[in-house]
Amino acid sequence: MESLKIVGLCILSSIIYGILHDLVTANLCVEYFSVFHPKIFNTDNPWLLALGWGFVATWWMGLLLSPFIAVAARSGALPQLKWRDLIRPLAILLLSSYTVAFIAGIVGYRIGTIPGWVLKQAPQVAEAHFTPAKEHLFTADLYAHNASYLTTGLGAFILCFLLIRHRIKLYRPLLGAPPPQFWT
User: Fold this and answer.
1) How many domains does the structure of the chain reveal?
2) Which of 13, 30, 165 is nearest to 96 (CA)?
3) CA 182 to chain centre
4) What pLDDT sits at residue 182?
């Protein structure tokens, strides 16, 4: 049952992260969602797009990564962690991802100033007849989103390693001996 709680926590955390992330990016460049994505929401309202895409584009990431996190937190003979033990590490992971996405958005904005770069990367943008200012914002969104997925995916596997390492440290006093050296 505790593993299912961890899966639920990961999915809920992903959704909350996605909505918060998209509240920023949809208000920067609504066309990132209305032109570059399939039109599954019949609106151009950035707030509604952020809520919709924040859910649709992230729940699966939490579902995909949660079994790895649950196994790292609960499997084997080491002391098991509960879902509450993962709130802080997940918050740190997602805050780190948000920070990297913010920095990547700034980099994307700067790269968006290169003439013709946006049109090469996303031909759909040509159909939208973006002004140069919108191209910068579109590129900022693109970089921020890609950075989020990459950072969160890699960060989840780092988190798994750190959870196992933490569980080994909890196990030391129970054993009366240090764990194998390759874990420290």
Assistant:
1) 1
2) 13
3) 29
4) 44
